[in-house]
Amino acid sequence: MTYTVELVVPDDCGTGMDGQSVDVDVRDGEYVLWAARNAGVWLPADCQQGWCCRCAGYLLSGSLDQADSRRYYDTDRDAELHLLCTATPESDCRILVCQYEAMLDERASHDLPPGRSKR
Amino acid sequence: MSDEKRHGSGSVQPGDTSKRVGAEVVRERGGDPEEIREKLIDAIGAEFTTYYYYTNLRCFLAGEEDLKEITEDARLEDRAHFELVMPRVFELGGKLPNDIRDFADRASCPDAYLPDDPTPTNILETLLEAERCAIRTWAEVCDMTRDCDPRTYDMAQRIYNEEVDHEAWFIELLSRERDGEANPAGHFVRGEPGEAPYSTNNRMNDSA
Fold first, then answer.
1. Residue-level pLDDT at B205
2. pLDDT of B35 above 80
3. Which of A59, A119, B48, B73 is 20 to 30 A away from residue B80, measured at CA?
4. Among the listed residues B25, B71, B108, B120, the one whose alpha carbon sits nearest the alpha carbon of residue A117
5. Is A17 on the interface with B (CB under 8 A)?
6. Cis peptide leading into B115, omega within 30 of 0?
């Protein structure tokens, strides 16, 4: 099974595809970040273990599984924020990428790391 | 005399200690010294917490002297990485978090907890994944600084070199321990424990 994930890239993302929307095929069980990078969309990421939040994205539509992340909170899901390095699609999705700052704000608003230490 | 003559270029005036040419030249080349600095704090937070966690992991390798020796090298070299980059944080106008809890919270790699079942195999898997996180992090720092910040880039690529060594060591050891396979790292032993051949900062004097 393969899902179509539309990556909406903000103007200030620094990916080389800023301001564009890019459709990426993501196989069942494959991480969104890996599929995006393989498709030439070099999304930001550091740890790639679902911890640091650098790869955060905002889920505009669809469903993502985040079970493999090392540090992910229910409040993240409530805010539709996901860690794309360890997110696997459960449906076709539309994702606003490069949401690291938004994730830090969201974590800080709930007194959660790393946002609480960076705000 | 010097305060009467402006620098030939740039935004730092003679005698101005509120700015650093060492940071402004990064900006002039398209880099963002504040963004680099914050990423460095996260990255050395991970090196520092790893040094702590490896101390504990190493203790639970009792009787596995070859594994202990390699873990000790990695542990001490991670501390060396923290000490190499820490001054750069200040040079770029930053500082260490006052509270160590904040430092640990923002570390860019997961806590390397002792596994619930602390067998050598489980500990080696923890060590391996910690090194892989470090490799990815320092590769990103290299990407971020390659064309704008030669000093940070030099530090990051030195650390990257050693993290790749560490991954190779733990692949070798885990392959043997878990799978009974030879998967050589091909590296020679360090000259002394935690030698950090690429990344050692200025040696501290003997009284330090």
1. 56
2. yes
3. A119
4. B108
5. no
6. no
